[in-house]
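We both want to read discrete structure tokens more fluently, so let's practise on a single case. Would you supply a protein for us yourself, any chain you care to pick? Would you write everything just below, so we can both look at the same thing?
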Amino acid sequence: MAALKIGQSAPRFSLKDKDGYTHTLDQPKAEYTVLYFYPKDDTPGCTLEAKEFSQCIEKFAARNVRVVGVSGGDEKTKAKFCKKYSLKVPLVSDTDFKVAKSYGAYGTKQFMGRTFQGIFRKTFLVDKAGKIAHIFDTVKPEGHAQEVLAAIEALSKNGVAKATAAKATKATSKKTAAKKASGKTAIAKRGAKAKPVRKATSVKTVRKSSSTRGAKRVVKKNK
């Protein structure tokens, strides 16, 4: 399967946790869903990663972000793992690795000269629209929870900045439109107040007046 990319729709899933509760991508609705894939329950790296996510679970909740850990195993292995380390992060069982495969988080691995099939340590950040917002391809267990929190903060700031810019652009457009409308109104008013042009006296009328005055002068002389 081709690797997932940012902006793509995240594959849907329906997996159960240690208590038999079914987790899906759409429930509950959150700003972001952190879907982290880990190789196996109760192994050193996976334990460190799960403990750090558990320690930061309230910080994620405060940002309306939920965290779900995915690996193989069943409800019993998840229950034992969570109880042993008092984990607060929900862990779900992908027993047939179908979900891991759909996210490109399952394949050929090598460890100590041995080749085998297994889950890769990868994390996906999915937004509330169900789109992939960020992908962590190379994950180190230590400090990963903080790394994800930092990415969420950056995405949130970027979203606010875009919204602010869009709002400013809209306001500027409104001002420009209002200014143009005001200018047109002013021109119309000036046109209405303009004085009417006087009618020019015709040449005919001027000549007629001159002729009349000349005739009066002639009559006076004859008297």
